Amino acid sequence: MKNKRMTGWKQNIWIKKDANSITNPDCQNYNKDRGDMNQKHVTTWALPIVIVSFLTSTCVSLWSLHTMSLRNQEELSKILTAQIYDVIASELSDAITVSRTMASDVFVADTLKHEAEEGSAATLKNYLSGIQSNLNHEAAFIVSDASGKYYTVDGVTKVIDPQTNSYDRWYTAFLESGEEYDLDVDNDELAQGEWTVFVNCRMKDDQGSLLGVCGVGVRMALAKQKLEQLEKTYHVSICLIDEKRLVQIDLDENNIEKLYLEGLSLPSPGSQEYLYQRLGKDQIAVTKYIDSLDWYLVVESDGSQERGQFVSVIFLNVAVFLVLGGLLALAMHTIAKRTRTLADASLKDSSTGLLNRRAFEEEKERRSRKAPEADFVYMIADLNGLKTANDTMGHEAGDELIKGAADLLKLYFGPYGRVYRIGGDEFAAIMRISEAQLEEVQENFDMAMQTWEGTLNKELSISCGYASAKEYPSESFAGLSHIADERMYAAKEHYYLTSGKDRRRQ
């Protein structure tokens, strides 16, 4: 008998390994399925909320940043314009005053009238030297309209010829403009090409006849340095243009008197207001009229600073989203885990570890809504002799029988489906298994039941009833349940008839 039991348990182990190696989509853990469903349910509503919240917060942040950026750019451009205006005006206003004073100086006019007399050139040279040294200007000049001589602190340096020398065409252009004075930005050929602004003033005699042109030159070192600093610090582009929108002062010397800022609106001459305008999707400009120069100061921004801020905001929002998403995922995992734990507690029979009556009813309800699969099998099982064990040996012996029956049912039928304890001594199994497999499992189950021996009980008997969809293809789940019940009761009657035991005492 001992050898028989050893053989039976070896078969039990073989069957367990063989059964667990079979892949069956309906053999997943019931409580895990419910936990996963709850987690999926949480994800279904939580994930869209997080994504919508992220997108909304990002859009609001970007909109707020864009609005504030436009306002800040406008104010910043105005401040920069005011700073540049002060620097340029301080460097040029004095030069304009000196040049206009020279143009109205009677001494200069009389000297030019008697230019042919001996000593006139030396007189003008000394006069210009005094202007340059005493008033601290980099250049001072007088051009005689009668002779074309160009007087500087070095004397007569050349005779201008606008017809053949393109560099001298400024003289003709100024006279034709009809202006009393103007500004001309150029690279002074006498000062190693430094960035210089020349103030040109028309000179006339008492009768209004043209005598020539005089003025001073201001090398805009301080203004250029200030513009470079502001452009680099604030990522802007700064220039001065005339009424024709032709660039007169620019850090890029290739633009000077060559580039027209077409499409740019200008304030009215004499206006003290700042004109703010958008030139494109990202480019903005603030324009200010400089009355003493009759030029317009333009400060342009290409939006690169704003784009950098946008990238920072997006990066920050993504980082926050990832952190919050991670926390949410952790919370969802914790909730799902707790849900599975609660599901285990509510759907599992604590004494046997099998699914309980509630889980069985839920599964039965789900199964009743569809036709059984081709390999569907329903089994109902009832433990024999439980009452006798409880009455003669106590409830510990009865619990041992219940636990033993549950272990055998789970061991042999569990790999193919779900096993339930639906009553005190009643069990059920819902499986998907072929007839050949079912026959083999039944044989090994019966053999294991015959060789079973507990601590308080020497034997274990279970009456089972089976009903398969293959045997009854037209039956519903309820119909198969009814057939299995009838077969279980028939097996129970057979057990009592063959064992000679009194059913009423069982």
Descriptive notes:
With 506 residues, the protein is α+β, with helices and mostly antiparallel strands. It folds into three domains: 31-92 and 235-346, no CATH class; 104-219, Beta-Lactamase, CATH 3.30.450; 348-505, Alpha-Beta Plaits, CATH 3.30.70. It has helices at residues 2-20, 30-103, 106-113, 120-134, 169-177, 221-234, 304-347, 357-367, 386-393, 395-413, 435-451, 477-499; strands spanning 139-144, 149-152, 155-159, 181-187, 195-204, 210-219, 236-241, 247-250, 274-278, 284-290, 295-301, 376-384, 417-421, 426-432, 461-468. The protein has a six-stranded antiparallel β-sheet, sandwiched between helices. It has a five-stranded antiparallel β-sheet with strand order 8-7-11-10-9, with helices on one face. Strand 2 and strand 3 form a beta hairpin.
List the helices and strands and how they pair.
Elements: H1 2-20, H2 30-103, H3 106-113, H4 120-134, E1 139-144, E2 149-152, E3 155-159, H5 169-177, E4 181-187, E5 195-204, E6 210-219, H6 221-234, E7 236-241, E8 247-250, E9 274-278, E10 284-290, E11 295-301, H7 304-347, H8 357-367, E12 376-384, H9 386-393, H10 395-413, E13 417-421, E14 426-432, H11 435-451, E15 461-468, H12 477-499
Antiparallel strand pairs: 1-2, 1-6, 2-3, 4-5, 5-6, 7-8, 7-11, 9-10, 10-11, 12-14, 12-15, 13-14
Helix pairs in contact: 1-11, 2-6, 2-7, 9-10, 10-11
List descriptors.
20% strand; rod-shaped; disordered N terminus; Beta-Lactamase; 3 domains; alpha+beta; 12 helices; 6-stranded antiparallel beta sheet; single chain; 15 strands; 506 residues; Alpha-Beta Plaits; 5-stranded antiparallel beta sheet
